[in-house]
């Protein structure tokens, strides 16, 4: 792979697989590119909630809006510029309020491969 720069306009956002919520993801680097991580953008509509057990290590950077991530240990709320790390195996509930949220993410290994397994 070579050095690359991405903008949210480069992402083709599609509904997150297996979710009923209005949550969209767009991978820009993934298993198809031969790198070890997946990099992309996410968009969460207002008032959405997603609960899952993390199949991969996921680092999410909030670019706009706000969201909360709840676990058995408590809840963190993140806004623009905040980073939330969600380790593999952790059960999380991600919730948006107000205007929803736009995020960037990096996962290891590739989240789409883990969801197919």
Give a structural overview.
The chain has 117 residues and is mainly beta. Helix content is 5%, strand content 54%. It contains one helix and eight strands, in the order ββββββββα. Strands 1, 2, 3, 4, 5, 6, 7 and 8 form an eight-stranded antiparallel beta sheet that branches. A hairpin with a 7-residue loop joins strand 1 and strand 2. It is globular and about 40 Å long. The two termini are 25 Å apart.
Which helices and strands occur, and which strands form pairs?
Blueprint: E1 14-15, E2 23-29, E3 38-44, E4 49-53, E5 57-71, E6 74-78, E7 83-86, E8 91-108, H1 111-116
Antiparallel strand pairs: 1-2, 2-3, 3-8, 4-8, 5-6, 5-7, 5-8
Question: Quick gist of this model?
Answer:
With 117 residues, the chain is mainly beta. It contains 1 helix and 8 strands.
Essential attributes:
54% strand; 1 helix; mainly beta; 117 residues
Helix percent band: under 10%
Name the structural class.
Answer: mainly beta
What's the tally of helices? 1
Order of helices and strands: EEEEEEEEH
- Ends: how far apart? 25 Å
Beta-strand percentage range: over 45%
Low-pLDDT stretches are none
Please give the largest β-sheet. 8 strands, antiparallel
Query: Which word captures the global form?
Result: globular
């Amino acid at each position: 792979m070579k050095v690359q720069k991405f903008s949210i306009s480069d992402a083709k956002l599609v509904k997150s697989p297996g979710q009923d919520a209005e949550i969209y993801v767009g991978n820009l680097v993934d298993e198809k590119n031969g790198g070890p991580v997946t990099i992309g953008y996410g968009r969460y509509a207002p008032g959405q909630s997603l609960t899952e057990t993390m199949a991969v290590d996921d680092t999410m950077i909030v670019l706009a809006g706000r969201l909360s991530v709840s676990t058995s240990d408590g809840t963190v709320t993140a806004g623009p510029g905040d980073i939330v790390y969600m380790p593999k195996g952790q059960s999380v509930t991600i919730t948006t309020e107000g205007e929803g949220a736009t995020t960037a993410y990096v996962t290891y290994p590739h989240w789409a491969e883990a969801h197919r397994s």
